[in-house]
Amino acid sequence: MIGFLKKINWMTLLIPIVSVILGLLCGAVIMLIIGYNPLLAYQSIVESIFLQPYYGGETIRAMIPLVLAGLAVAFAFRTGLFNIGVEGQLMVGWLASVACAIIFGHLPRVLLLPMSIIAGGAAGALWGYIPGLLKAKFKVHEVISTIMMNYIALYTTAYIIKNFLYHEGERTPTIPASASLASNFLANLTQGSRLHWGFIVVIIAVIAMWYILWKTTKGYELRAVGFSPDASKYAGMNVSRNIVLSLTISGIFAGLGGAMEGLGTYQYMTINSAFTGIGFNGIAVALLGLNSPIGVVFAGALFAGLQTGGLTMQSVAGVPVELIQIIIALIIFFVGSSYVIKWAIERLSRKGHKK
Amino acid sequence: MSIFEVLTIIIPSTLLTAAPLIFTSLGGVFSERSGVVNIGLEGLMSVGAFTAAISTLALEHSGFGDASPWIAILIAAIAGGLFSLIHAVVSISFRADQTVSGVALNFLAAGLTIFLVKMIYEGKGQTPYITHNIDKISIPGLSKIPFIGPIFFQQVTYTSYLAILVSVLVWFIIFKTPFGLRLRSVGEHPAAADTLGINVSRMRYIGVALSGVFGGIGGAVYLVTITSNYSVSTIAGQGFLALAALVFGKWHPIGAMGASLFFGFAQALSITSQQIPYLDRLPSVIMLTAPYVLTLIVLTGFVGRAEAPKADGVPYIKGQR
Amino acid sequence: GCGNGKTSGSSATKQTAFKAGEVTDVGGVDDKSFNQSAWEGLKSFAKDNNLKVGTGVKYLQSTQASDYSPNLNTMVHQNFNVVYGIGFLMQSDVQKIAEQNPKAHLGIIDAVAVDKNNKPLKNVASITFKEQQGSFLVGVVAGLTTKTNKVGFVGGINGALIKKFENGFKAGVKAVNPKADIYVQYAGAFDAPDKGAAIAQTFYTKGADIIYSAAGATGNGVFTEAKNRTKSGKKVWVIGVDKDQHDQGLPENVTLTSMVKRVDKAIYDVTKQAKAGKFPGGKVLEYGLEQNGVGIAPTTENVSKKALDAVSGYKKKIIDGSITVPTTDKEYKEYLANLK
Amino acid sequence: MSYAIEMRHIRKEFPGIVANDDITLQVEEGEIHALFGENGAGKSTLMNVLFGLYQPDQGEIYVHGKKAVIHDPNDATRLGIGMVHQHFMLIDKFTVAENIVLGKEPKKHGLLDMAKAVKIVKELSEKYGLDVDPNQKVEDITVGMQQRVEILKTLYRGSDILIFDEPTAVLTPLEIQELIVIMKRLVKEGKSIILITHKLKEIFEACDRCTVIRRGKNIDSVAISDTNPSELASMMVGRKVNVQVNDAPYEPKEKVLEVDHLTVLDSRKVNVIKELNLTVHGGEILGIAGVDGNGQTELIEAIAGLRKVKNGRIKINGQDVTNQKTRKIIEAGLGYIPEDRQKHGLVLDFSIGENMVLQTYYKKPYAQLGILQNKVITKKAKQLIQEFDVRTPSEKTLARSLSGGNQQKVIVAREVDRSPELLIAAQPTRGLDIGAIEFIHGKLIDEKKKGKAVLLVSFELDEILRLSDRIAVIYEGNIIDIVNPKETDENELGLLMAGRKKGGNQA
Ligand SMILES: Nc1ncnc2c1ncn2[C@@H]1O[C@H](COP(=O)(O)OP(=O)(O)OP(=O)(O)O)[C@@H](O)[C@H]1O
Ligand SMILES: Nc1ncnc2c1ncn2[C@@H]1O[C@H](COP(=O)(O)OP(=O)(O)OP(=O)(O)O)[C@@H](O)[C@H]1O
Ligand SMILES: [Mg+2]
Ligand SMILES: [Mg+2]
C-alpha cells in the first residue's frame, strides 16, 4: 500500500479535485442567477451528510450500488470495451439474488446469504457474457448489444416477477431475514438509515478489481487485449476469450450491485417500468474516477453524497434537485477537459514561481 | 384481423416511431463521420424535445396556429446545434475523451431541461400539453391508391417522409459533395487531411454541430408527433436507440435510416401483435423484447461487420505522432 | 425556510404550527395524476386553514425510487404532523419509517401499511380507492355510447391495481351492452405515450370508437391518437382517468368522460382529522362511490342523457350493494356468469 | 544564384529536446538533395517546419530567393512545396483519385466532379510516368503504388519543390529503382527534390548533394561526387561504423522448420501460398527474397498460427504445428519479430517491462499460480534494456514513447532472450539507422552461432545477401529457387524475384 501511495501522480489527483470545485462554483453561479442562496444550499448538503448520521448512512448506502456499477464500467474500459449494459446486468443481478433468497429461504443464513449474493453476480455475469460472446464470435459492437441487453433485461425481469414471484405492490415478496444484508446495528448507528453490510462486498470488489487487473496473469492478458488486440494475438493470447471474460467479469460487478439493492436496500425487487439509472450513473462514476478502483470509490462517494445531500438541499434551500445533476455533468466535463486544466494549473504555478 | 389490416396499422406506426430515430441517427452519422463519437445523442434529443415543447407553446399562444410545431422544429434544430457545441468545445478543443464528454452531455441535458421547465413553469416538473401537434393525415391522392395507399399513405405524418427524404439528402451530401469528402477524410485520417490544408477542427465542429441540429430535430419531431409535452420521461432511451441504429446502419445515412425503420417496425409489431390472432397467445415478454433480440440476431448474421470511421473517437492533436 | 431538521427522534412536539407534507414519486406534483391530485388536496387544506404553501404544506419530489425513504424520513424528522407517501410503490418505505418512528403520523395512498405480522400499522392511515366502481360507471357510459359495439381499455402496468380499473370497466360495459367487444392491452409502462398511441391506433383501426385509458402518461398517446383521428374526420372518444381530463381532449373534444379518483379529497379528509387530533392511524380508509372518492367527471357535456340516467341508476345499485363490481379476473368471470 | 529552398539557422525545440539546433539547408534549383542522419537526428522535424506543420522557434526560410513565412500546409502548397511523408498520409477507404483531389476538388454545380478528377489523375500519371489506377481504393493497392499516389498528390497541387521523407523504407528494390527513375524525370521537368533516406546506396545513385545532420545540428553539406559511402556514414554517426557480416562458418544442424506442400488462402480466398516447400536448419540463416505481395506475409502468418492452413504440414522441431494455436506454436519454439512492430510487436500502452514478457508472462518465473511476479519482471526488463542498449529513462516507460529504433530493440531483446529454436525476423531493420541496423544484424548472427534457426524475410537485398547462409526466392506463393549468396548477386536475385529462372526461362 505504501508503494501504491508513492505511485500517485499528484496531477492526476489534482485534476478531479479542481474539477469538483469548478463544478460546484458553476452550480453556485447558476443558483445566484436564479435567486437561490448557494451557501445555504451547499451548507445543507455538507451538514446533512457529515453531521446527521442518517444522511451519512444513506450516502454510504447509495454508494454501494454506484461503486459496483462504476467498477463494472471501469473494468470493461480498462480492457478496451465500453459496457453500457451495466443497467441491465444490475437488474438481472437484483432479480436473481432476490429470487434465490426467496426460493431457498429455508436454508440457513451461512449458506443462503452467500448463495444469494453469488446468484446476483452470476446473473450479471451471464448478461455480460452474451454481448461478450457476440463481440468475440460475430463482431457485434458491444455498444449496441449492451444497449439491447438492457431493454431485454428490463422486460424480462418485469415478466418474471409478474408471473413467478408476484407480491402485491407490483413487486416480489420480501426476502427472508436470513438472506438480508440489512442490519439493525448499522441502522441504529445511523438513526435509521438503510445502510447495510453490502459495503463489505464493495470493499472486496474494489480490491478484487485492482488485484485482478494488475497482479494476475489474467489481468495482464485482459489489459493487453484491451490496448492492442493485434499484438496480443501475435503474442499467442486468445483475444476472443479475453473479450468474453472481460465483459463477464464486468457483468459480475454490475450483478453484485443489483444484489446489494435486492438483499440490502430494498429486500425485494419492484417491477421496473423504466431503468433504475444506477447503471448509467455508473458510467459517470467510472469516468470521474478515471477508471481506477480507488478513483471509482471517491467518485461514487461524491456522486452519492451529492444525490443524498441534494434531497436536503431541496427541502432546506428549495433548490430543484435537477441542479445536482447539472453540477455532476459539469464536473464530468471538467474532468474530461483535464488537458486544459493541466495546462492552466501549470501556467498558474509557473507564474507563482516567477513572483 | 386480415394481413392487410395489420399492415395498415403496423406500417404507419413504423413510420411514426422511426422518424425521430432517423433524424437523430443521421445526426450521429455527421458527427461520427467527422471522427467525433457522439454518445450524447440522447441529450441532444432531450434538448430538442424540450425546446420544441416550450416554443410550440409560445408560438400557439401568439397565434401561429398549425405552423407552430413546424417553426418549433426549426428552433429546436438551432437549440440542438448550439447545445452540441459544448460537446464540440470539450472534445475537440479541450481534447476530452469523446465518450466522457458525451455522457456528460446527457447528464447536463437531462438536468438542465427539467431545471428550466421548473423555472419557466413555476416549479412544475413538466410542460403543459401543446395543442397543435403535427398530425397524422392521409396524403391526398396517394392514399387513394388501392392497397398501397392505405398502408403507406394513410395515418402518417409528413415528418416521416421528410425523414426519409433527408436521409437521401444526407447520403448525397456525404458522398457526393466536396464537403462530404472532407468531412469523411477528417474522420478517417485527420493528419492526412491536415496536410492537405483541411481545417480538421473546423470540420469536426461542423460535424458535431450538425449532429446537434439533427438530434434536436429528432427530439422535436418526437415531441410534436408523439408525446405533446416534455417531462423527465419524454426522452428515455431513444437517443441510445438512435446510436444503435447508427452503428447497425454501419455509419451510413441510408443504413441508419434502414435500421431506424427496423426498430420502428419491431416496436410497432410488438404492440400490434397482441391484437393479432395467434401472435396474441405469445407471452407479452416475447413481443416486448423482440425488437432488441431481433436486432442482436440480425447483427450476428446478416449485415456483417460494422466498421467505424478509422479516427472515430480519436482526438486530433496537431503534430502528434 | 423551515426548520433545519436537526432534531432527532420523533418527538412530535405540538409547539410548532401544524404541518402536512407529501413525498411524490418520480412523476412530481404535476403529473396530471395522483401526485398532482394529492397536492391539490393539501393545497386546498392549506387555503382553508391559513397555512403557507411551502412551509405549512409542502412536498418533496423523488427523482428515483431510492429517494422515497430519505424524503419520508426528512419530513418525519422535520416534525411534519402528517406525511403522505403517494402511491403503492412507497408502501414498504412508509412501513419502515412508521416502525422506526412510532410517534410520527404517516399516510399511504393505494396500499395498506402493515407490520411484520400483517397487522395494520397503528401510526399509518392507509387510503385506498374502489377504482372498480368508478370504472364501472364509465364502462356504462362507453357501453351505451359506442356505435361500433367495440371499446378498448389501455392499461399502464399489468398489476392488481390497474386490474381493478379493467375489470370494473368491462363489467360496466357488459352490464348495458352484453354484445360489445372489449379490447384490452397493457403498455407495460406508465410513461410511454408512444406505446399508448400505437395501442390506440390498433384499437381504433380494429373498429373501437371509445378507449378507456388507465395508464398515466402513457394515456397521453391515446389522446394524441384520438385527436388525430377526429381531425381527419373519424370521430372517436377517449375516457380519461384519475382527474377530469376534459381539457386535454380539447380542441377536438375527444374526452367522453373521465373516471375521477379523488385523492385530493381523501388527503384533505385525513389531514383535517389529523389537525383535529383524530388521526385515523391503523385504519384502512376505502374511498368508493359512497364516499364520493371515485366517480365520473363533473364535465358531462359529451355524455348522453340516457347514459347519465343509467349511470345514476347503477351508482345507486352499487352503493346499496345490489351490484358488486368485480376487481380481479376471477371475479369478473363470475360476474359474467351471473349476468347471463 | 538563388536557392530553390534556403532554410537559415532553424531552431525547433520540443519539450525537453532540441530537435533542430541552428540548421541551415540550401537546396539548389533542379537538384536532388539528400538529407542524411541518424534516427531522431531531426530530419523530419526540419521538413515539417518547411511544410508548415511546425513553426520554427528561430530562423528564416527562403523559397526561390524570397523570404517566406509558412504557417500551415496551405502556405507551403501555395509556395509550390509538396511533401511525401514518412508515414503515408493516405485515406485507406478513399479511392486513389479521391485521395489526390481531396482539399482541392474539381466541382460541377458545387458537387464533386469525380469523372473530372479521374481524368486529371490519369493525365498526370501519364505525364510523369506514375502508374496508378484512379478508381482503386488505397487499401487495395501496393505500397509502391501508394507512394506514387503521394507523389501525385503533390504534383496535382502544382508543387515544384518536393520533399520525400524516407520514401524507400517501405519499398522493394524494384520499386526503389522505379522511384529513382521517377525522381530523375521530375528533376528534368524542373522540379527540385529533397530526399531523406538511411540508405547510402540510394544517395549515391540518385542525389547531387547531401546535407548531414546529427543530433539536431548541421554537420556538413557535400557534393556526392566529392565523397564516398564510408565517409558519409561516419559523418552521420560521428564514429567509424563496423559492418556486420555473417562470417561464422555454415554448419547446418538438424531440421528446425519443415514446411511441406503448404497451401494458404488470403483474405479474398485466393491461394497465395501454393504447395510451398521449405526447410530451415539449426545454425543457419535462411533469407527469403521476394517482391512484396508474393506471399511472404502469409507464409509467416501460417507458420505462426495466425492464418489458417488449407493444405500441407508445418513442423517445428519435428512437432506438427499445422493449424495449432499461436501459443502452442510459440511454446514449440517459435520466436517472431513481426513486420509491423507497432501494431503486432508491442502493446504500445504497456511499459517496456510489461512488453518484455508478452509471451512469457504466465510462466515461471514471471508468474506463480496465476500471480504476476512483478519484481522478477522488472529485473529481467532492466537486464535486457542494458544488454540491448535500449535508450529509455526506465523500464516503466511506455513503449509508445520510444523511438522506432528503440521499439524494435525491445522486440528483438524479448524474442532473442527467449532463445527460440526458430526465429522469424520480418523486415527487422526497416526504417532504422545504420547503427541500429548493425546492432540487430549482430544479434541475428549470434542466434545462428548458438545453433538456432533464423528465417529472415526482407526486401533489402543487401541485407539478405549479407546475412543469409541460403537464400530462398519467393515468387507468386512458391519458392522458385534456393541460391547460395556467395554465388549470386543482386542482378540475378532481381531476375529471380521477377519470376525468371536461371537460363532466362519464364517460371
Ligand atoms: N511532436 C514531437 N514532440 C516532441 N518531440 C518531437 C516531436 N517530433 C520530433 N521530436 C523530437 O525531435 C527529434 C527529431 O525527430 P525527427 O522525427 O525529426 O527525426 P528524424 O531525423 O526524422 O528521424 P528518422 O530518421 O527516424 O525519421 C526526435 O528525437 C524527437 O525527440
Ligand atoms: N510526440 C512525441 N512526444 C514526445 N516525445 C516524442 C514524440 N515523438 C517522439 N518522441 C521521442 O523522440 C525520440 C525519437 O523519436 P523518433 O520517432 O524521431 O525516433 P526514430 O528513431 O526516428 O523513430 P523511427 O525510426 O520510427 O523514425 C524518442 O525518444 C521519443 O521518446
Ligand atoms: Mg522518425
Ligand atoms: Mg523522420
From TrEMBL, chain A:
It comes from the Bacteria. GO terms for cellular component: plasma membrane. The chain crosses the membrane at residues 12-39, 59-77, 84-104, 110-130, 142-161, 195-214, 243-260, 266-289, 296-317, 323-345. CDD domains: TM_PBP1_transp_TpRbsC_like. It is found in: Cell membrane. It is a multi-pass membrane protein. GO terms for molecular function: transmembrane transporter activity. Keywords: Cell membrane, Membrane, Transmembrane, Transmembrane helix. InterPro entries: ABC_transp_permease (IPR001851). This is Branched-chain amino acid ABC transporter permease. It comes from Sporolactobacillus laevolacticus DSM 442.
UniProtKB/TrEMBL annotation, chain B:
CDD domains: TM_PBP1_transp_TpRbsC_like (cd06580). It is found in: Cell membrane. It is a multi-pass membrane protein. Keywords: Cell membrane, Membrane, Transmembrane, Transmembrane helix. It holds the Pfam family BPD_transp_2. The chain crosses the membrane at residues 6-29, 36-58, 70-90, 102-121, 158-175, 205-224, 282-303. InterPro entries: ABC_transp_permease (IPR001851). PANTHER family: GUANOSINE ABC TRANSPORTER PERMEASE PROTEIN NUPQ, SUGAR ABC TRANSPORTER INTEGRAL MEMBRANE PROTEIN-RELATED. This is Branched-chain amino acid ABC transporter permease. It comes from Sporolactobacillus laevolacticus DSM 442. The lineage of its organism: Bacteria, Bacillati, Bacillota, Bacilli, Bacillales.
TrEMBL record, chain D:
InterPro entries: AAA+_ATPase, ABC_carbohydrate_import_ATPase, ABC_transporter-like_ATP-bd, ABC_transporter-like_CS, P-loop_NTPase. CDD domains: ABC_Carb_Monos_I, ABC_Carb_Monos_II. The keyword Transmembrane helix does not apply. SUPFAM superfamilies: P-loop containing nucleoside triphosphate hydrolases. It is found in: Cell membrane. Its main location: membrane. Residues 5-240, 257-501 form the ABC transporter domain. GO terms for molecular function: ATP binding; ATP hydrolysis activity. Keywords: ATP-binding, Cell membrane, Membrane, Nucleotide-binding, Repeat, Translocase, Transport. It is a peripheral membrane protein. It comes from the Bacteria. The keyword Nucleotide-binding applies. One of its GO terms (cellular component) is plasma membrane. Belongs to the ABC transporter superfamily. This is Heme ABC transporter ATP-binding protein.
